[in-house]
Amino acid sequence: MNPSSRSGPLLTITGSIFILLGLALLGGGIYLATLGGSVYYLVSGLALIVNGVLVLKRRRSALGLMAAILIVTVAWSLVEVRFDWWQLLPRLDIWFAAAVWLLLPFVDRRLDKPAEGMDAGRKALIASALVTLLVGVVALFQDYHDLHGVVAEENMAGVGTHDAAGVAANDWSAYGRSGYGDRYAPAAQITPANVGQLKQVWSFHTGDFKGPTDPGEIANEVTPLKVNGMLYMCTPHNIVIALDPDTGKEIWRHDPKINRDAAHYQHMICRGVSYWDANAPALNGAPARADAATMECPRRIIAPTMDGTLIAVNADTGKSCASFGDNGVVDLYKGHPVKTRGMLMPTSPPAVAQNMIVMAASVTDNASTDEPSGVIRGYDPVTGKLVWNWDPARPDETNPLTEGDTYVRNSPNSWGVSSIDEKLGMVYIPMGNETPDTWGGMRNKNGERFNSAIVALDLATGKLRWVYQTVHHDIWDMDIGGQPTLVDIDTPKGKVPSVVATTKTGHIFVIDRRNGTLVVPAPEKPVPTENAAPGDRLSPTQPYSALSFLPERNISETDMWGTTPFDQLACRIIYKNHRYEGPFTPQTVGEKGKGAIISPGPLGIFEWGGASVDPVRQLLILNPNYMGFLERLVPREKANAKGGTGGEMGLQPQTGIPFAVEIGPFLSPLGFPCQAPPWGYVAAVDLKTMKKVWMHKNGTTRDSAPVPIALPLGVPSLGGMVTTGGGVTFLSSTLDYYIRGYDVSNGKEIWKARLPAGGQATPMSYVSDKTGKQYIVVMAGGHGSLGTAMGDEIVAYALPDGVAAPATRK
Question: Which of 116, 392, 577, 681 could bond to 450 as cystine, CB 3.0-4.6 Å?
Fold first, then answer.
């Protein structure tokens, strides 16, 4: 029987698929070409259609044409992305599979027979497939993204006692361990040599889960405290829990029973609580409190609640401290002109000094211009009495409000964690923006200078000491969420007391914390100024720090990604349909499917996780992310007709200004990022030289891709890192459910453990007062907005008995 007589269905299906795929490429390619994009897709679509017709006719010339398609695609791909494996894959995968398919004997033999001794098309196709395979193999050994380096021996041999701002060596007594916010635990029991033996030793379930009326963005972002012989934490609904640090068993819990009847809460988050001890020594030279012995609740947990209160709880018993405020509660809505529940949301713990509690709060983002004030207030830690208030819209009036007066509605707020230097008598505030974020034509003139700035206030009076603005006239939501880190930096002229501020733009601003002058230069550079949104303006320059993780070049069409040529083509079309002029691309009024690419996006290169600092080794440890977003301003009349989501994605109303805003991730139709990976890294900077030492892509797609395959692409992380005296740093907040340990000397991953849920929190470390054992603890509770699995479990790891090193680094 002639093979060609049996070829009908197989070649008919093959040829038809080629034609359909070619038509898709041709249609999209024509559209992309009209937008000024690559003509490759148009040409390859035509070639694939012709190839499909040849297959239907059983012409052997189909093999030669496929060889030409494949080899041209390889050459085009190498010109665009060199030997970048994950960039080559979506460009070549379909064509390589098609070539192999045509070469299979049961397909090949159904094509017409070649002339005697001549099968040039088959030979060409085999050669092109082998070339493609060779290119793939070579690409596997290329690395254009990681920075391989080793920390200088001088740094690694660093000696000296770390000034932990009054924190006992075994403890972790504030959100960032101390008021300095460096997230550095001096314990040195866990080292690169033994970290592989870390095992889970206990876990605890809080029992606090998402309720039917809770918002989509509910998250367990807590970093526990270890102090007073207990482990203290909070849940998304602000339940405060004390645990035994050696066993994880519950000692007490305090449920403030927050008001959950608001029209909507945009978030339901508690990042942590604060600790205050009347017997703690004063760090500014002031005498210790004389009333500590007779005080009710001499040791207190100070915690915010999502319904706008500040509570004080006896750290020993969990009972309310009746002498604080009104039976243990201070009403944070007092003095605000807007009192709607759910609009004032303190998601982060206050900064606490011996004689002051400094409290800020977030407000509903992008909802309206009628929001609570962004006032920052200082309270007496014993009585809860208001001592001072600093409203960015009235920055010179810090005396407590008089009866009947109110703070200025909608002034810039701070939603992150502040840092304290009690010796200098200053608190360092990471400022957000006056909402709405994406249009600034009506902002408060006084408050404008404090948007997206680091503000230093006098701890005793609230008076402004200095301000440094990281983004001028911010219309991109580049507010500062990460806690500023205080560190004394070694320089040729001696140690310089500095504050290190990570930002969403990727710039890291290093500032002398005494006076606000720059330690690392940040010259002003021109940015796009044309075609601002109607009624708004643009700053002609922005500060560009010499220490930065902002990519050196802007994203381009060649950076568009996908799993196949088809969704990559779709991403190229999306890219060309949106305005993009670099990191400060102006917000744009657009129709559906058109607007601006905002990259870095609102999640930023650095988010609320901030940075970790090893002050002994003079290292800055970070986890930068790279994900762009699509945004468009929607005229008021159209926005009113559509309504809004109430969340931070989708259409956000921004009532009170001429435009709503629609925000969404920059994704292909298949749900994959349009920007090529890597999307997440771990990195280190030598603070002595202010140079990057190492930077490695981090995390896999195991828990975020439609198919649970652990591709090592480097995924985003939302949370911070902890660094230890033993030379290991830990991160848990990647989109895959792992906590990982890295050697601080080179950034290599040297340990990981599977978490029961998303770990979008910052780990911490402490040493047991009873056994001397060092623990690593992390909350695995997930994040509603990121789509990671939700949970309620806090997990502790330690080395087995008998595996030990010195407990602390001197």
Answer: 392
CB atoms within 10 A of CB 282: 15
Catalytic residue among 214, 365, 474, 477: 477
Calculate what percentage of the chain has a pLDDT beyond 70.
Answer: 96
Q: Is 507:635 a contact under the CB 8 Å cutoff?
A: no
Phi, psi of 462, deg, nearest 5: 80, 0
Per-residue pLDDT of 602-618, as tens digits, reads 999 999 999 999 999 99
* Radius of gyration for the chain, computed over Cα atoms and rounded to the nearest angstrom: 29
The tokens describing 234, both together, are: 């909070």
Three-state secondary structure string covering 713-782: CCCCECCCEEEECCCEEEECCECCCEEEEEECCCCCEEEEEECCCCCCCCCEEEECCCCCCEEEEEEECC
In the three-class reduction of DSSP (H, G, I as helix; E, B as strand; rest coil), residue 16 is classed as helix
pLDDT above 80: residue 808: no
Residue 698 half-sphere exposure toward CB, CA atoms < 13 A: 35
pLDDT, tens only, 283-300: 877 777 778 778 899 999
For 134-145, how does the pLDDT look when each residue is reduced to its tens digit (9 = 90+)?
999 999 999 999
Q: Nearest 10 degrees: CA dihedral of 9, 11, 14, 20?
A: -90
| Mean pLDDT, rounded, of the chain | 94
Phi-psi region of 794 (alpha: psi -120 to 50; beta: other; left: phi over 0): beta
How many Å apart are CA 245 and CA 343, to the nearest integer? 35
Q: Beta strand pairing status for 299-305 and 309-314?
A: antiparallel
Residue 151 near residue 693, CB atoms below 8 Å: yes
Dist. CA 695–CA 145, nearest whole Å: 8
- Give the model's confidence band at 4: pLDDT under 50 very low, under 70 low, under 90 confident, else very high: very low
Q: What value does the mean pLDDT take over residues 180-189?
A: 96
Q: Using CA of residue 407, residue 408, residue 409, residue 411, what is the dihedral sign?
A: negative
Rounded CA separation 659/188 (Å): 54
Q: What tens digit of pLDDT does each residue of 436-481 get?
A: 999 999 999 888 999 999 999 999 999 999 999 999 999 999 999 9
Q: Which residue has the tokens 């942590």?
A: 272
Q: In what order do the strands lie in the sheet with 309-314?
A: 274-277, 299-305, 309-314, 329-331
pTM of the model: 0.95
pLDDT at 806: 56
Tokens 């007073």 sit on residue: 228
What length does the chain have? 810
pLDDT higher than threshold 90 for residue 73: yes
Partners of 788 in the beta sheet? none
Token digits of residue 616: 């002994």
| Closest C-alpha among 508, 530, 531, 534 to residue 521 | 508
Confidence check: pLDDT of 810 > 50: no
For position 613, what pLDDT does the model report? 97
Q: Is the dihedral of CA 323, 324, 329, 331 positive or negative?
A: positive
Angle of helix 61-81 relative to helix 85-103, nearest 10 degrees, comes to 170
Please state, in angstroms and as integers, the Cα–Cα distance from residue 470 to each residue in 427, 449, 456, 464, following that order. Answer: 18, 10, 14, 17
Tell me the C-alpha distance between 80 and 39, whole Å.
13
Q: Is 743 known to be catalytic?
A: no
Question: What's the average model confidence in pLDDT over 114-124?
Answer: 83
Assign 3-class secondary structure to 30-46: HHHHHCCCCCHHHHHHH
Beta bridge partners of 526: 541
Low-confidence winner among 157-171, 562-576, 712-726 (lowest mean pLDDT): 157-171
